[in-house]
Amino acid sequence: MTLALLSCFYLPQAHGAAPAAAAGQEPPNRGALYRVSDGRHTLHLFGTIHVGASDFYPLERRIAQALGEAPVLALELDPQNAGALQAAVQKYGIYPSGQRFEDHLDPALAQRTMAALKRYQLPAQQMQGLRPWMLAMALTVQEYASSGYHPELAVDSYLAGAARAHGATVVELESAERQMSIFARLDAAHQAQFLGDTLDEMDDADTTRKLAELVGAWRHADSQGFENALQEMEQDRSFASAFTRQVLLDERNPDLADGIAALLTGHDKAVAAIGILHLVGPRSVPALLKEKRLKVEQIY
Question: What is d(CA 96, CA 99) in angstroms, rounded to the nearest whole number?
Fold first, then answer.
């Protein structure tokens, strides 16, 4: 299920301003919130989604209060570190000058890709240099945008803006180099398969439902909805779903847990925010933190 990419893999975007809540209206729980403690320090761990809509904000009072008191906010990537992202995309996501994706795909897949770019009103000429995995990411972002969820309103960006507004430091748990290099492992055949699987999902009549359910689970802090999304990914036999589950989630979770544990050791009242699907399943980040003998309490 490649639609799950934006629940576990982040491409930073400029943040758009979010509106204030209506007077007297209490914002609902969103995503998932945990309290983690080592006996000396406490940290809040929040599950995000890497796109957004204006009515996602503001966030409910407990995460808002934790963020307002936090000396440090840790994200997968810092939205303001655009230069590092651009360099990593150039290195891993774009062909050397003069090469085109049409030269690297079989004619049928190239034709399907061109049709998808046209459907989403993406400039095909400007995207000719993108490698297949990067095209898959761009098309996934557009699928979310067509349903009203935009990367410029990503939850991570909102959190970073709120943290910086009161003088908190924003740090990265990963790096753009680390994230983009993961896709460099894919040979040409697997990159084409990843793109083809993405196009198959977007052509599926069930796609709108799946996207609505995934974002809806985040909107309503629906833990069972996240579990269902993970189970659906495990049952999907496509290469793209297996890669997302095994590499983008399971392989990255231990490093994310290590970074959060280190943050807890050095700071009290810090906040860490990562893609919501990193918080789900038997090898999730909360489960790995418990293995480190930390106290992990799910608030919602």
Answer: 6
Given a contact cutoff of 8 angstroms between Cβ atoms, the answer to whether 31 and 45 are in contact is no
Which residue is associated with the tokens 């609902």?
A: 28
* Burial classification of residue 164, based on how many CB atoms lie within 10 Å of its CB (0-12 exposed, 13-18 middle, 19 or more buried): middle
Helices 223-235 and 207-219 cross at an angle (nearest 10°) of 150
Question: Which residues, other chains included, contact 53 with Cβ-Cβ below 8 Å and sequence gap of 6+?
Answer: 148, 149, 150, 153
Which run of H or E residues covers position 63? Answer: helix 61-69
CB neighbour list of residue 294: distance below 8 Å, 6 or more residues apart = 36, 37, 38, 261, 264
DSSP letter string, 246-276: IIIIIITHHHHHHHHHHHHHH-SSEEEEEEG
- Cα torsion angle, 219, 220, 224, 228, sign: negative
Three-state secondary structure call for residue 33: strand
Structure letter (DSSP) for residue 1: -
* Phi/psi at 37 (5° precision): -140, 145
Contacts of 188 (CB under 8 A, 6+ apart): 104, 132
238-286: per-residue pLDDT in tens?
999 999 999 999 999 999 999 999 999 999 999 999 999 999 999 999 9
- Quote the pTM value: 0.92
Compute the distance between CA of residue 267 and CA of residue 257 in angstroms, rounded to an integer.
Answer: 15
